[in-house]
Design brief:
Helices cover about 30% and strands about 30% of the residues. It is an alpha+beta fold. The longest helix has 16 residues, at about 115-130. The relative contact order is 0.14. The model has no long low-confidence stretch (mean pLDDT about 90). Bound molecules: coenzyme A. Coenzyme A binds near residues 87, 107, 114, 116 and 119.
Length: about 190
């Protein structure tokens, strides 16, 4: 069994999944779902979650939690220290030649938004990845209607690198797709613990 990863901050901890996390993960698909309107919102009717679908979903999450975890991790759960599980951070499209990876974050518990917890979690995640991978830069994608994410990314040192004007339609309105970069200088600073 691989060692457990646990990255402690002041108010949140990033950690590996546990079997008991399934309950929270199902809650984020059934009861606490507002985050989905901001993450990667899409048009069209949402398929109803029947009891059978929830059970199947819970079983598939439990199975994925039981899988051996890659090192470094592609995803860690975000937990409020002394409080509930809040969401996750992830990385994807890692390109070792270009020395770049994309990162994402979802704080699914909406009662915990706008308290600086997402920024703390994303900074912990950036530091974990910068220590674990040979990175020149990190990238993050969002859309202009998600000002919480824009603000959180900027507080972490990301700057807008590419604007795809009007490329996102959300609830009948056009928004820009935004690509942020945490450039080499910022990554070096974080590597140095700045
Ligand atoms: C986006 C997300 C990760 C940010 O985490 P968070 O803990 O809420 O963020 P923080 O509190 O660290 O920072 C949010 C900032 O946005 C600001 N903000 C909130 N609403 C805003 C608005 N409408 N316009 C401008 N700024 C706004 C807050 O004031 C805060 O800045 P401050 O600390 O300077 O006051 C979290 O809200 C979330 O997961 N939301 C749902 C899913 C999602 O959007 N995921 C990202 C997909 S790309």
């Amino acid at each position: 069994m691989t060692d457990q990863v646990r990255v402690e901050g002041k108010r949140v901890v990033l950690r590996d999944p546990r079997p008991e996390d399934v309950e929270a993960r199902v809650r984020w698909e059934t009861v606490e779902i507002e985050w989905q309107n901001w993450d990667w919102p899409c048009e069209g009717p949402v398929e109803a979650l029947t009891e059978a679908r929830v059970k199947k979903y819970a079983a598939s999450i439990a199975a994925s939690i039981a899988q051996p975890l890659p090192s470094p991790r592609k995803r860690l759960w975000v937990e409020r220290i002394g409080g509930p599980l809040l969401g996750w951070v992830n990385q994807y499209h890692y390109d070792p030649e270009a020395r770049v990876t994309w990162v994402g974050i979802d704080i699914c518990e909406s009662a915990y938004w706008n308290q600086g917890l997402g920024t703390e979690a994303l900074l912990l995640w950036i530091d974990y990845l910068v220590e674990s991978l040979d990175l020149e830069c990190l990238r993050l994608g969002t859309w202009s209607g998600n000002q919480r994410m824009v603000c959180c990314a900027e507080k972490c040192g990301f700057v807008v690198d590419k604007v795809n004007s009007g490329s996102r339609e959300v609830r009948g309105k056009r928004y820009d797709g935004l690509e942020f970069v945490l450039n080499q200088e910022a990554v070096s600073k974080r590597r140095g613990g700045a």
